[in-house]
User: Fold this.
Amino acid sequence: MTASAPEPFELFAIRYANHPGRRASDNAIGGDLHESASDLDYFVWVARRSDRTFVIDTGFDSGQAAARGRDLIRTPRQGLALLGIDAAQVDEVVLTHLHYDHAGTLSDFPRACFHVQDSEVAYATGRCMCHGFLRHPYHVEDVVSFVRHVYAGRVAFHDGTVELADGLTLHRVGGHTGGLQVVRVWTKRGWVVVASDASHLYMNKGRQAPFPAVHHVGEMLEAFRTIDRLAASPRHVVPGHDPLVMQLYPPVSAELAGIAVRLDEMPRDLPGGSR
Assistant:
């Protein structure tokens, strides 16, 4: 960046839930049924600087945790409060896609504008939802809630790449869903990509091993290339569900260890085979 580079964003990941006991075949197409595999952690993210605050995704609530056998540690709203952010006062929320674990709890953000890709809404409300395999990761009540926010004039639709602020851009990659988008954020360590479900785990991108919940495998594989191109290095890519994120990045404070980490700081080296 030149001398006119924008003010960098602080960037945080907040862990709010967990799914233990997964097998390798649950996390990658072709995974060995007998091999142990990573749990999934569930995050919301925050990009914050003096003039703007963006919340990235809104997680799920206790109802969906119970219905899907996930361990809800804290609500996303409670997690945000630990960083001094009142969900009720947040003006802008990026929804990477509309799956239950990324686009629930919209009512906790009563003044926010929700940023989403045209193709994601078309996918989540179109003919693909006639197929149980594709609609399973969506929660119909969350989708209905989202549509109500459309009618209330509180959704910003985007088609492809868009700059929301000097130093924060959205990029449609698809693959996992019809309109999945990743978020590129300018930080003090350079361009960081919040990959969300473009790569659930470091392993997915590192081994070119697509996650089994997928709409278009070809787009998912191309997304791995896209996020590498957008990020300053492989260490600047943050996967959507990897518990390693809590281990590799420094905590916001000693009290928030295991809860919230700073993604604008360099992580420790990634494990072998994860780059």
Remarks:
- DSSP finds nine helices and 13 strands in the chain.
- The chain has a mean pLDDT of 94.
- Residues 10-169+243-262 form a domain with the Metallo-beta-lactamase; Chain A fold (CATH 3.60.15.10).
- The radius of gyration is 17 Å.
